[in-house]
Amino acid sequence: MIFSKTLKHWYSINKRALPWRQTQEPYFIWLSEIILQQTQVKQGLPYYEAFVAKYPTVFDLAKADESEVLKLWQGLGYYSRARNLHATSKYIVSALNGKFPNNYKALLKLKGVGDYTASAIASICFNEATAVVDGNVYRVLSRYFGIDTPTNSSKGIKEFKALAQELIDKKDPAEFNQAIMEFGAVQCTPKNPNCLVCPFNKACMAFNKNRIAELPVKIKSAKAKKKHFNFLVFVSNNQKTLLEKREGKGIWQNLYQFPLIETDKNLSYTQFKTLVKNHALLENVPFELVLYNKDAVVHKLSHQHLHTKFWIVHVEHLNGKAISVDKIHDFPVPIIIGNFIEKFNF
């Protein structure tokens, strides 16, 4: 097919030299694909290199403590990916003797592996003709064929998968899949693509009908909720502080944070100090409270915006689960906590 031939020719000239393109080893392909979910290559590449250096095989990753994996993942966000990565490595080692499933359907059964990742591994490692469909592919196909179906609708997901499957080069699915993903990332970019040098501009519906900015279509998600987070950063005279592990399900599950007080609105210093006095950690304990950041740090997640303040709580002593401040860098924390730790410089 002309589309496939043109695409692969473009890829042969323009593809970036990336380490996971030098191998067909399933472990490295799987690792790169999990890291690159919701993450751009320039951000994900250093993490991939760090993981490969520390865990060169799936056996090494399976032997690691989850806290170590989360610490290495720190800053990438969507931490469920790291937890699933670790859980899957353990399963592959214990149940499959370190061998990855060699087909799309079996790969789909792995924790944290969906249609896209299963298709990528199956095609690149095992030459199975199953098409990848990610944000880049949606964009390319939507613009080239002028498709208005929302990409995040059930109808759109089925329609674009079927179209990609129809277009895939059955003889060389690995090259085709990598080419279409790269084309979307480098050439058919979300904003201001250079359509004048695009090899598809003569046939591209979006370009010829001046609809580049309109496509692809996506249903708007619900408005993100606004939350007010207040972290209590304890500092004692003997240089200790407190971190708590987040239990239960959630975006920061098994990560560490300073003791948290969530409020339904922004509070004044006086209002918050009155609230802090009743905190279980400060009952009958003299303390000095200092607001570190007058303006809240806004941390935007897909479904909520966290308006965050850090309150320094000076106390004479901390006992029990207190840790030395020089150990604070050993704990995996959300990026917003990590940024504060670097700036505060205990």
Write the layout of secondary structure elements.
Layout: H1 2-14, H2 26-36, H3 41-54, H4 58-63, H5 66-73, H6 80-96, H7 104-107, H8 115-126, H9 135-145, H10 154-167, H11 173-186, H12 205-208, E1 225-236, E2 240-241, E3 244-245, E4 256-257, E5 260-263, H13 269-277, E6 288-291, E7 297-300, E8 304-315, E9 323-324, H14 335-344
Radius of gyration: 24 Å
Tell me the distance between the termini. Answer: 61 Å
| Total of DSSP H or I helical runs spanning 4+ residues | 14
Order of helices and strands: HHHHHHHHHHHHEEEEEHEEEEH
Percent range of helical residues: 40-55%
- Strand proportion: 5-15%
Number of β-strand runs: 9
Structural class: alpha+beta
* CATH architecture type of the largest domain: Orthogonal Bundle
What is the CATH superfamily of the largest domain?
Hypothetical protein, domain 2
CATH class of the largest domain: Mainly Alpha
Biggest sheet overview: 5 strands, mixed
Cofactor: [4Fe-4S] cluster
Keywords: 4Fe-4S, DNA damage, DNA repair, Glycosidase, Hydrolase, Iron, Iron-sulfur, Metal-binding
Family: Belongs to the Nth/MutY family.
GO molecular function: 4 iron, 4 sulfur cluster binding; 8-oxo-7,8-dihydroguanine DNA N-glycosylase activity; adenine/guanine mispair binding; metal ion binding; oxidized purine DNA binding; purine-specific mismatch base pair DNA N-glycosylase activity
Question: Can you put this structure into words, describing what you see?
Answer:
By secondary structure, the protein is of the alpha+beta class. The protein has two domains: 2-208, Endonuclease III, domain 1; 225-344, Alpha-Beta Complex (Nucleoside Triphosphate Pyrophosphohydrolase). 42% of the residues lie in helices and 13% in strands. It has 14 helices and nine strands. α2 packs across α3 (41-54) and α9 packs across α11. The chain is globular and about 75 Å long. The N and C termini lie far apart (61 Å). The mean pLDDT is 94.
